[in-house]
C-alpha cells in the first residue's frame, strides 16, 4: 500500500485544473510506494491491495469525501494554496509558542538540572567558562542575588553550546528573571516544531499530514516541558533534527547529480570517447552533506550524544549512496560507495563537525580559569616523546575530554527518577522536574491540599500511539523497503539504540526528547495511511478522515487535561492525583 494523505492532484485540496503551490518532494519521480506524493499520478498499490483495488474498480462508486470537495473549493486559487503551504506550519508553530510561553516564569526557582545549566550559563556569560558556586547558591540565585559565583573553574561534562544559548536569554532578560533562564530553550523548542513540520511535508509531500505532525509536537507534554525548562536535551534535539533535514535534502541532491554524471558519461562512452562507467563519480560538492556535518557538530557541542547522530547518519549516507549507484546501473556500486564516495563523504561530514565541536569551547581556550585549563603545565603532566610538540592547551583539552568521557560511562549514582532505556518507549517513569505541596491558605492554595508540579510526561495518547507506530514501521521497512521509512527509523537508531549499551548507567526518561520527532514522523506515516487519498472510494476515505479527526480531538482533550501538570500550576491534590495513571508516574 502506498502512503498518502489528502494527496490527489493538488492533494491538499486543490482541483486538478489549478496548479498547486510548489510542494517539495524528495524525488522528481516518486517510487511506487512513495510516502504521500501530492502528485497527479495515482498511487501504485502494494501486493496486499490487488484484490481490494479490483473490487473497487468493478463498482463505480463515488471517490473522496465531502470534506475533500470543500477543501478543494477553499484552495481553489494559487494564492490560497501558497497561504496554506506556509500558513499551516506557521499556525502550529504559533500554537507551540503560546503553550510554551504562557506563565513561563512559574515557578521562580531553579528546577531539576536548571541548578547546573542556568548557573553554568551565567558564569559563561561573565567569566567565559563554567565556574563554581558557594554552598546555598540556589537560594541566592532564586532570590535575585546572582553574582555569588567564584572565579574557579567547575568540572562540567557537557560542552558549552547549549549553555551559551541559555546565556543569551540571561543577557536579554537578566539573571534575576525566570523568563531569562528559560527563554532560550523556549525559542529552540518552538523552532523545532516549525522544522519538524517542514521536514514532514518534504517526506510525505502533504501539507495536511505535515501540519498534523507539527500539531502533535506542539501540544505534546514532553515537548512542552522540555521547552519550558532550561535543560540541554531540547537544544540537542533541535540541532540533530536540523541535521536530519539536511540528510533528507542531500539524498535527492546526490541522486540527481549522480544520474546527470552517469548520463553524460554514457553518452560520451557511446561516442567512443571514454570507457563505460564502472564505479561512478566521487561527488565532492554536496552542500547539504556539509550542512548535516555542521548541524551534527552543533548537536555534539550541546551534549556528547550528538555524536551518535553523526555516526549513524554517516553510515546511512554510505548505504544510500550504494543503493543509488545500484539503481543507476553502476557495476561496482557497493565498492564505489564504500571506497570511492565513502572517503569523500567522510571528509564532508566529520571535519566540519569536529571543528564545530572544538569551536564551541572557544571560551575555555581564550581564558585561563577553566577546569583543567592549565593541566598540561603542571609538573609531570605534559606529554613527552613524539607528542611533545602538541600545544599545552590542546593537551589539557584532550585530558579534559577523557575525564568527561570516563564520567559519562561510569555514572551509576542512584536517582529516584532514573529510568531504564528499555522502558522509555512505554513511558513508565517520566521525570518529575518540580513538585511543591501546600495546604489551605499556603502559597495561594484554596483547597485542603494542593500540588504544583512539572512532570515531563508526554501526552499518553500521542506517545503510546507513536510507540506502536515505530514498531509498525520496523515491519513495514522489511516488507516494502520504502526509503522514507528507513530514514525515519534511522533517526530512532541514532537517538535511542545507543542508550541500550548503558542499561546500568543513571539515565532519565527526558532524554527521549532527542528522538521524539522521529516517533511523531512514524505516527505521521500511520495517520497518512489511515487518511488515504482522494482517489479512495467514499466510504473508505470518510472512515479514514473520521478516525483521524476523532484521534486529534482526544489528543486535544488529553493535552488540556495534563497542561496544568506540565506547567507548574497549583491545583487540588486530588486533581494532580488523577494524572498519575501508572505507579511510576508518582
Whole-Å distance between the termini? 42 Å
Task: Compute the CA-based radius of gyration.
Answer: 26 Å
Number of helices: 20
Shape call: flat
The chain-level mean pLDDT equals 89
Taking the sheet with the most strands, its summary is: 3 strands, antiparallel
Decide which structural class fits the backbone: mainly alpha
- Give the neighbour order of strands across the main sheet: 1-2-3
Stretches where pLDDT is under 50 for at least 5 consecutive residues are 4-52
Task: Estimate the strand proportion.
Answer: under 5%
Estimated helix fraction: 55-70%
The secondary-structure element order is HHHHHHHHHHHHHHHEEHHHHEH
Write down how many β-strands occur, each being a DSSP E stretch of 2 or more residues.
Answer: 3
Work out the oligomeric state of the chains in this entry.
Answer: single chain
